[in-house]
Amino acid sequence: MKYTSEKLEEISYALEGESVNLTYRVLLESMYFSPGVNIREEENKTYLDIVRCKVAGTCDVQYVSHFNEDGSQSVTIKAPIDPSAVWVEGENGNKLITDY
After folding, report:
1. What is the 3-state secondary structure (H, E, C) of 27-92?
2. At 25, is the pLDDT very low, low, confident or very high (cuts 50, 70, 90)?
């Protein structure tokens, strides 16, 4: 499972060399949380999948996130990706992470 763009309150990023530091906030749910993100390539596009996992479950992720004091989550993606070309899938269409 993953969060769609409609379930994200915010995404921001900062470039650090070959890494991207990503901060995101999902809508609060009592039965689910995000343990991290996966990156995938499909049809010549890079997609960011923010994993949605049951609280009592375990989910595999490529990049584990960490909770911040303000309730957001941060993850460092150690891969040469261009944030201006990274998409999040949505129910009403895909959204670039730079559009948040």
Report:
1. CCCCCEECCEEEEEEECCEEEEEEECEECCCCCCCCEECEECCCCCEEEEECCCCCHHHEEECCCC
2. very high
